[in-house]
Inverse folding.
């Protein structure tokens, strides 16, 4: 009876070995996971028309975005608790600012006119000088920048953790609750949710001839024939190309003074050819984001259109064309969460 | 035992090796889904690069009116390269390092390409705008100039510039460049005429656009060439080759592992089965052994029980015999003592002496009997050991005969013959028991006046004692039990005896490694032959006595 124990053990060992052999053979034949979602399938335009409508649906994490929206307006994100994202990106000004140079708390004025947050997910490069390729690198830099948030994700998450309500909200959304990385993820999710599809002109592009007025249609024709669409094209109507400010006339000579920020992309690349070169901004929701240009020097759409025609195209617009172009630009205001923003 | 331990150790080593290799190969198993998606991504580098190049060319020839396709192609290339950083684990660390090294190269090339594309877009946007707008503007100015009476010259100069630019647009070489430059000079000379026509602003714009075209087209073309020359496809090819090399190595490794696994499994199974079989055989053997032992023990037990039974019988016989044998001399002693007590003062001294002699004789016979019983008891208990000493056998026997003849009534004659070397090493006391008992029996059981032959022969090996009488003999049915204690032959009832003499002889002979045999014929005589070794080894105790 005593010798039965080891015999049983060795038999069990054998069986276990054989079983695992079988399992291994089966496992190596079985496709383990579904093919990963391919990012490039999202939307690949063909490029026959200069402008394409924004997709009507897009994916984002609603729960995270909701939390991110709250964080977006919370001064606890900044190192000294004085600055919130919404101090410069203001919702009632198209997520831009109505000031040429934004002022938040005791921070120095922003060197450039704050761009809109709408449709940032469709931009190829971010900020006027195109310094950032991704929303992640952009938001990380702004958090650390002592002239902006003067903070870090760790500091922000420590500040937020002092409020039980935040801890609860994060716990509801993230399995690991309130962490520096999750604060960042929530804000990123919110930024990705700021999309304004279904603008009247997008409806027109999708085939609804009644969606826009005849003046808008005329404006679009002008937009193309004047050559605006050489740069302002694509889904975001800009945002995917760099161009020198002042191709046919010298903008900065006419303006009369000169700032470091006017060097534009040169500040990023230090290449001579990038002097006065800026990222061509998206024209979507442009009617909401006055003033215009990197220095905020154009107070109205009319001013902006006139300046662009003059300095970029070397042309002086007549009143009718200018009105049509402005009408066209106004038709580019989309819907945010199904409503006009 | 040692062998089986080594066997067990081998089994454990095989099983452990099997488990180890199993675990290792499970961790490093080729994940075919991962492999497929990775090699698809590798092929995609080539495809996406070609797509990007195609879109750049389309963009340059104004077949594409937006830059999103370019941006998307770049972005997905970047995503593919980023995904490729996650090298499948089953390829091993060296492969991962190798592939990542190549990927870094690829990413550097992609950055170059990205920068070039960026540059291209900037130049191309302005260039395409000019190329598009220049003919429209020029033709409308020509129309307006021709409408005026003196506008023909300006119109033809503009026309010449259009032709030069169109030629330049098809082939931007030195020839066409100098033609454009010449046409530009011509048009610039006509500034005054243009002013008169009110077209000086348009003339300047035409010149500006032609300068943009002249300046940017070669730049743009050069950038496009640079974009196409970025060796991303070569790196992609190298990546694919490196990957397929590593993948082949990985599959080879996996195959070897599987073979090793198979061998180890086989070894484990064989060793395990052998172990099981050996164990079963061993337990069967153990069972057999146990059965044999049990059987032996049973036999032993039966023998012991038999012995015990015999011993019990012996005891019963002993008690009955002793009570009987002792009673006779005791009654003599008691009666003689009583008589002496009551009548000694009245008796003659001779009569008193006679009774005292009876008492002494009875006590002596009891004493002898006790000696015999003790000797038998010691022999049976196994504590009787001979104490051999050197003695002269011839002398020893003669003394014995003399003492016997002295004590008996000299009614018999003992014919004593001795031959051989008389110097032997034997136990004197035991030998006297043997010879004394045989001779006294011979005297006791033979009629008065008959002769007893006593022959002693001491050969080189052994001593042979033969005692032959012409007495009453022994019945044949009694011979088997002749040497048992207290056994008396059926025809010996009339003659006094304890039945211990021959038992003592037998024990004493056997203790000295000798034998005793009897030949008898009823009524004619009996012959005892005793054989003992000539020399008994001198025991330690006896030697210490010496």
């Amino acid at each position: 009876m005593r010798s039965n124990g080891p015999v049983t053990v060795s038999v069990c060992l054998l069986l276990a070995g054989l079983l695992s052999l079988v399992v291994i053979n089966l496992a190596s034949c079985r496709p383990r996971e579904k093919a990963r979602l391919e990012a490039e399938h999202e939307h690949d335009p063909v490029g026959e028309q200069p402008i394409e409508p924004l997709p009507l649906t897009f994916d984002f994490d609603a729960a995270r975005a909701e939390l991110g929206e709250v964080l977006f307006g919370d001064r606890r994100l900044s190192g000294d608790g004085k600055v919130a994202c919404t101090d410069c990106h203001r919702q009632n000004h198209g997520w831009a600012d109505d000031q040429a140079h934004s002022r938040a708390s005791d921070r120095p004025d922003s060197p450039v006119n704050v761009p809109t947050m709408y449709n940032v997910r469709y931009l190829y490069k971010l900020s006027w000088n195109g310094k950032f390729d991704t929303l992640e690198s952009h938001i990380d830099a702004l958090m650390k920048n002592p002239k902006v948030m003067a903070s870090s994700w760790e500091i922000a998450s420590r500040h937020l953790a002092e409020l039980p309500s935040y801890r609860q909200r994060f716990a509801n959304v993230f399995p690991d609750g309130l962490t520096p990385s999750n604060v960042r993820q929530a804000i990123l999710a919110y930024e990705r949710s700021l999309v304004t599809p279904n603008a009247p002109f997008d409806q027109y592009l999708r085939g609804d001839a009644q969606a826009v007025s005849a003046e808008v249609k005329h404006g679009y024709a002008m937009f193309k024939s004047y050559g605006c669409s050489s740069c302002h094209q694509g889904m975001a109507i800009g945002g995917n190309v760099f161009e020198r400010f002042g191709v046919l006339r010298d903008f900065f000579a006419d303006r009369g003074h000169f700032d470091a920020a006017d060097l534009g992309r040169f500040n990023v690349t230090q290449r001579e050819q990038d002097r006065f070169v800026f990222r061509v901004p998206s024209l979507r929701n442009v009617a909401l984001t006055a003033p215009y240009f990197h220095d905020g020097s154009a107070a109205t759409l009319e001013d902006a259109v006139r300046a662009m025609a003059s300095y970029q195209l070397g042309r002086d617009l007549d009143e009718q064309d200018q009105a049509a172009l402005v009408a066209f630009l106004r038709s580019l205001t989309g819907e945010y969460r199904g409503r006009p923003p | 035992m040692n062998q089986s331990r080594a066997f067990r150790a081998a089994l454990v080593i095989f099983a452990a090796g099997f488990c180890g290799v199993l675990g290792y190969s499970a961790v490093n198993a080729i994940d075919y889904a991962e492999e497929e998606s990775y090699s698809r991504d590798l092929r995609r580098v080539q495809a996406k690069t070609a797509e990007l190049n195609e879109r750049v060319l389309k963009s340059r020839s104004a077949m594409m009116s937006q830059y999103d396709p370019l941006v998307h192609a770049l972005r997905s290339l970047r995503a593919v390269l980023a995904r490729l950083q996650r090298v499948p684990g089953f390829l091993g660390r060296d492969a991962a390092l190798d592939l990542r090294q190549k990927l870094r190269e690829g990413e550097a090339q992609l950055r170059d390409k990205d920068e070039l594309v960026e540059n291209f877009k900037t130049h191309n946007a302005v260039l395409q705008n000019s190329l598009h707008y220049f003919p429209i503007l020029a033709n409308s100015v020509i129309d307006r100039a021709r409408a005026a009476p003196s506008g023909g010259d300006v119109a033809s100069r503009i026309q010449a510039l259009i032709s030069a630019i169109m030629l330049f647009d098809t082939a931007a070489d030195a020839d066409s460049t100098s033609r454009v430059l010449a046409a530009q000079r011509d048009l610039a000379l006509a500034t005054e005429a243009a002013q008169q026509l009110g077209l000086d602003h348009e003339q300047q714009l035409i010149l500006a656009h032609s300068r943009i075209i002249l300046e940017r087209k070669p730049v743009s073309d050069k950038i496009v060439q640079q974009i196409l020359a970025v060796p991303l496809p070569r790196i992609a090819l190298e990546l694919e080759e490196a990957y397929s090399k590593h993948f082949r190595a990985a599959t080879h490794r996996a195959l070897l592992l599987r073979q090793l696994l198979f061998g180890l499994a086989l070894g484990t199974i064989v060793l395990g089965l052998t172990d099981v079989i050996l164990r079963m055989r061993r337990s069967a053997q153990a069972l057999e052994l146990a059965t044999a032992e049990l059987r032996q023990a049973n036999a032993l037990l039966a023998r012991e029980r038999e012995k015990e039974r015999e011993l019990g019988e012996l005891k019963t016989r002993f008690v009955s015999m002793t009570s009987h044998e002792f009673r006779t001399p005791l009654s003599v002693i008691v009666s003689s003592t009583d008589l002496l007590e009551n009548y000694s003062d009245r008796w003659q001294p001779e009569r008193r002496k006679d009774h005292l002699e009876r008492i002494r004789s009875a006590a002596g016979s009891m004493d002898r009997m006790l000696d015999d019983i003790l000797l038998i008891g010691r022999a049976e208990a196994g504590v009787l050991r001979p104490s051999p000493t050197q003695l002269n056998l011839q002398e020893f026997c003669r003394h014995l005969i003399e003492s016997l003849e002295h004590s008996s009534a000299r009614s018999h004659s003992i014919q004593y013959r001795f031959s051989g070397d008389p110097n032997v090493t034997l136990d004197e006391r035991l030998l006297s028991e043997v010879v004394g008992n045989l001779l006294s029996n011979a005297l006791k059981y033979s009629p008065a006046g008959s002769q007893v032959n006593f022959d002693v022969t001491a050969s080189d090996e052994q001593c042979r004692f033969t005692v032959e009488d012409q007495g009453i003999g022994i019945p044949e049915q009694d011979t088997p039990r002749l040497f048992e204690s207290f056994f008396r032959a059926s025809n010996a009832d009339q003659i006094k005896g304890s039945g211990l003499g021959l038992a003592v002889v037998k024990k004493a002979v056997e203790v000295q490694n000798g034998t005793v045999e009897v030949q008898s014929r009823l009524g004619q005589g009996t012959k005892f032959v005793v054989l003992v070794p000539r020399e008994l080894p001198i025991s330690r105790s006896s030697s210490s006595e010496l």
